[in-house]
Amino acid sequence: MAGFYLALEGVTRHGLQTATKRILQGSLGHAFLPSPPELRQECERVMKPILEARVRDNQERRIREEMAKDKPVAKWTPESRARATAKWEAEKAQQRLDNAAEETRRDQYDASPEGCTARLKAAAESNGKEFNLDKIRNAPSGSFQQVGRAA
Fold first, then answer.
1. Phi then psi for 8, rounded to 5 degrees?
2. What is the C-alpha separation between 150 and 118, in angstroms, rounded?
3. Contacts of range 116-122, beta carbons closer than 8 Å, 24 or more positions apart
4. Using an 8 Å Cβ cutoff, are 11 and 43 in contact?
5. What is the per-residue pLDDT across 20-54, written as a single tens digit (0 to 9) for each?
6. Is the overall model pTM greater than 0.85, yes or no?
7. CB under 8 Å to 149, separation ≥6 — which residues?
8. Which helix (H) or strand (E) holds 129?
9. Phi, psi dihedral angles at 32 (to 5 degrees)
10. Residue 102 to residues 10, 72, 88, 89, 98: CA-CA distances in angstroms?
């Protein structure tokens, strides 16, 4: 009995329960009860992935702590905060100007049938062709391909 106490010193309850279950299911390859070293080896086989995960977790934690220690911490001064705020406000103002210019350009674009016809006529004339709306046939493939033929 003392041999089992010595062999199982430091083994977790989970490791012993799982190893015992595996032994009873025939993992050792023989029918008789295991010796203390065999039981310890089976417990270590059960605990190996858990212990390896603990080692990895500890190593990753140590690396994260070292990185956090080495990372410089930026302190905001009133001057730096004012510079950052001014830069951000300038960027927002530029975005507003860009949006306003895009909306103005979009508003100037005439999407009415007359405006579209005028643009098609100008495109046809610039290509040296005569524009005649009656020559445009309806195409089942889509209106964009048909309009492209007119110009």
1. -95, 10
2. 12
3. 120/147, 120/150, 120/151
4. yes
5. 898 888 888 887 888 888 888 889 899 999 999 99
6. no
7. 136
8. none
9. -90, 165
10. 73, 42, 21, 20, 6
